[in-house]
Amino acid sequence: MRIKQSICYPIFKREDVSLDELFRAAKEIGYAAVELWARGDDFEEVVTLAKAHGLVVASMSGHQSLPDGLNKRSNHDRIEDELKTSIDVAAERGIPGLICFSGNRQPHMSEMEAIEACADGLRRVAPYAEKKGLNLNMELLNSKVDHPGYQCDHTAWGVAVCERASSPRVKLLYDIYHMQIMEGDLIRTIRENIQWIGHFHTAGNPGRNDMDDTQELNYAGICRAIAETGYDLYVGHEFSPKGGPIEALRQTFDLCNQG
Questions:
Q1: In whole angstroms, what is the distance from residue 7 CA to residue 175 CA?
Q2: Range 206-210 average pLDDT
Q3: CA dist 1 to 82, 121, 226, 256, Å?
Q4: How many domains does the chain have?
Q5: Which residue range is the domain that position 73 belongs to?
Q6: What's the distance, Cα to Cα, between the start and end of the chain in Å?
Q7: For 40-55, what is each residue's pLDDT tens digit?
Q8: CATH number at residue 69
Q9: CA nearest 72: which of 110, 101, 106, 111?
């Protein structure tokens, strides 16, 4: 089956393109879903309008603060409360995944101590996510260019957290752009770790723009490889278009419409 494509709508907002126009065009092009980041003032409008156009809301952030995350045990009470609230909101609105963050590396904390801390924090919430039927997706981000100090910056590190959390609802948000910067070897890594992946993000590298011939990633091949694994969740586009957002979404959909 073909991959299900999604758009991270905040990055495609333009003053000259209304939310209604954007979602209508996305549905006509063939997109299955849209995504949120933080649950802001326009949250209900986005959810309502997405549903009106037959689009799923595929993902949103589950807790506050990307750099101050799960690797600090002093954050666990706060994050547990935030995640449980987000789980309730997501479950009521049919949103299948919540984004979680490791946080930045802490002085005097070993990598293994941080892995165990993240796993313990997720383990506190995992039974509730299992009950409600949605995934907690810890995001893989690069610490070289965009997020200096971020700890969950390699696939193996994230997988180690998932293994220790020991829940079918604790997975990774595999961001292709970020992992190209940190480790490359994307298709092999995706194939070997697909059981741990609950969501994907895309963008061209370098620049985090369109997936055109100015960047280095072969997205047709990557998306074909994802489809071949049997992955049935969402691949969300999170790039900043250099031109008009609707034309960029059309070109991206055609490139990534693999299966």
A1: 14
A2: 97
A3: 35, 35, 10, 13
A4: 1
A5: 4-256
A6: 5
A7: 888 999 999 999 999 9
A8: 3.20.20.150
A9: 106
